[in-house]
Amino acid sequence: MAEVEETLKRIQTHEGVIGTIVVNAEGIPIRTTLDNSTTVQYAGLLHQLTMKARSTVRDIDPQNDLTFLRIRSKKHEIMVAPDKEYMLIVIQNPSE
Amino acid sequence: MSIPTAKLKKPTLKVTPSSRAMNISTSGILRLNRSATYARSINASVSRKSFCLAADSKILEKSSVQTPKHTIQVLDENGKDVTPRPVYQPDPAAVQSKHSKIFASDTSGGTMSDFYSTTYQTTTNASFAGAFTRSLFGSGSVSIGSQSIMESMSEEIEDPSSKRDNSISLSDVQVKREEVKELIQEEMLDDMVDLYLVESDTLCLLDMPAISVSVDSMEAESVKERNSRYTELCKNRTGNDKYMGRSMQTFNGASKTKEVQSEAITMADAATIANNWDMYDSFCSAGQGEVDLSTDTDKASIAEMIHQNHGPTRTMERTMSVISSSTIVSSSSSRMEMEPFVVPSESKPDPELILQSEEFQQHLFVMERIILENIYQPKLAAYRQLPTLEDPDSMPKAVPMVVSRREESSLDEEGPPTPALERLWSFSCELTTGRNVSSMAWNKRNPDLLAVGYGQFAFKDQKPGLVCCWSLKNPSWPERIFTCQSGVTALDFSASSASMLAVGMHDGTIATYNVQSREKTPVIDSSDCVHKHTSPVWQVRWINHERALSGEDKGEALISVSADGRISKWFLRKGLDCIDLMKLKRTRNDRFKRQVGEKERKSEALISRQAPGLCFDFHPTDSNIYLAGTEEGHIHKCSCSYNEQFLETYQAHKGPLYRITWSPFCSDVFLSCSSDWTIQLWRQDLFTPVLGFMSTQRAVYDVMWSPKWATVFGAVNEGRMEIWDLGASILDPTIVNPASPGVKLTSLLFATETDCVLVGDSDGQVSVYQLKNFTAGEGTQVGTLEDIIGSTLASQL
């Protein structure tokens, strides 16, 4: 447990990381460093996108599965690690 | 006797209704009566020829339909009332109506043919009636013929027997009745009673009338006559007015429409999209036999889940898929099983559980790596000699700087640009700040894994040591952290089992760690060993012995050198144990003494006979030979076969030797560096160094040959890091990189495969530098080195 907390803290303090969100399967945030409305917005939108991405991956090959999703935009990069029970979202500004 | 004759004799009985005086019609017309069944049956039983007779002997003609049964009386010739008493008295009204119905069609007057038809009808009816009249008793005696009829016509065999019984019982009843009457007049008992014995009628039990008659018999004529009459009749039938054709038509039952209305069936539409993977999941989960809830779709609600299971079955019906029908059945059954399982999945897993789960840790780990990759991507790419990707959205300010620098550099030299070191990144974290990097080692199997040992060199301010395993993919936090009880002074990864790390410590302990596991404790420790080192272990090395030595198994052995003057070989027996390969004895400086020619000095008081060993290196090809450097400044060439004596001794250094390394390319050339500010290049057959290098007046802590070029080596002294290229210059280092002020550089490590150098310093940082614009030439430059050595030697002579 302590290791998890440490790692989470380290991630949050890395260079360029804007926010870290952990939501459960229903979209309720477990851990977040952003405000609630932003968290809920991110969680909801990314949940749908993750499901679509996963569906795409598995349609091509049902034995395959989605492990990670990265969306790079002009301003930042959103990284999503999906799971069946939770979702880990990190928003980073890679170039500073 | 002929039956008909018997019948002729019959007409003794007269049946008279008691209640109403009705005429008994003995004519051929049959009146409807209950007991007329018997009469008819008798008539029917009688053969054709005796038809008329039968008609005469229709004793059983009953007068009317409506006469109640108990009013009928049968009287025999004596006038006795032998009316059979009914044993069972049913409801008269009900019975009557039944009978009237049955025999309704029988009323027909008329001709013989009609009679015939009626008789046949009646016989059939009689058989029916027999069923009804079983409970009723008609005249008992008349039942003779009826019995026969019954037997021949009806299917119920019981009837005749019952009738027989009836007749018998009836007579019994009759007798009883009479007895009752008699009893009343008791006085009459004394009277003389006249009993007349009369021959009773012959009971015909079975009458099977013959159908055909012999020509010689009496009735032959009458039969023939009848036959002829009948044929004539048949001929006359057609077209004759007397004969009427009758047709029958069965009535069609009146149809009646009946309407039924049921409740409206509520329909619910359910739709889903069945994906490829949805079908695959259902197939897999059905095949497993248990509900696999870990389908990869997020279950937002129960309905969604059920729909998902509805969907596949529907699509399966539609599409020609590989899934067999048994799967459909099993998936539907699994759907049924799914219902009870739905509920637990609804309960949200505890957030704490999520955070503690293994998958979450794994995801965090991956996420961190990816974040760091974003940050360090250019540096890592440079390390791996990949082209650096320019971020298209990066700030444009960086670009002109690079351009200008390039312009400047290109303007400066006409020739090739100067070789330089570019600092890529450094491995450091808050744990390691302030610690002195004492040793570094690459993992033999995973070239991205680096083990760094932290420990103080000096005796004072010793603190618990630290070993960190860094991965190239995460320069900000080590993968493994091992705390040791004393400062770490030596490290080496094993080659055979790539996850074993040997650690030598300042208090002489040697421990091995398994870096694959997450345990913080060493696999094995030498602190319990009897022969453990008593002084700091300055170097450990895993050496692969090709030849078995002194009965030991071939394989890898851990060799260590420590300040107590022993070079020991460690192995696992009942714990970690060691044998001494060599004891480094102090050697007196005989040569110098002789040269100087002084008289013998007084032998110095020796603290110990052993000379502290500081470093050693095994020959790259011959694992039997190794060099050992001592604090005295001597280099001893030893062999594993002799553990008493050195093969050779090289004396040149005036201070403790910190490092000896064989050249990886030239097998008899080695380098040594010591605290006397010099680096010496030796050839193993010469007792004086071939070349000596000195650049600053600082102790040289570490030296290492480049794995790529034979002429290149790197050295680190207190204040700076130097790269020497002997092909370029043997007097000055080619690249010099000064250390940050206040920080001493302590160790150096070349990275294989890439042009990078790692430098550890006393602040706990391991910096990664890339050699830029540096090349010693094509190939390994072995020839160049040998040329240099050769020319140097030649010049010395």
Automatic annotation (TrEMBL), chain A:
Query: Can you list the GO cellular component terms from the UniProt entry?
Result: cytoplasm; cytoplasmic dynein complex; microtubule
Gene designation: DLRB2
Would I find Lipid biosynthesis among this entry's keywords?
no
The organism is Esox lucius (Northern pike)
Q: What does this protein do?
A: Acts as one of several non-catalytic accessory components of the cytoplasmic dynein 1 complex that are thought to be involved in linking dynein to cargos and to adapter proteins that regulate dynein function. Cytoplasmic dynein 1 acts as a motor for the intracellular retrograde motility of vesicles and organelles along microtubules.
InterPro entries under this entry?
A: DYNLRB1/2 (IPR016561), Roadblock/LAMTOR2_dom (IPR004942)
Its protein name is: Dynein light chain roadblock
Family membership, please give it: Belongs to the GAMAD family.
Superkingdom, taxonomy of origin:
Eukaryota
Q: What is the lineage of its organism?
A: Eukaryota, Metazoa, Chordata, Craniata, Vertebrata
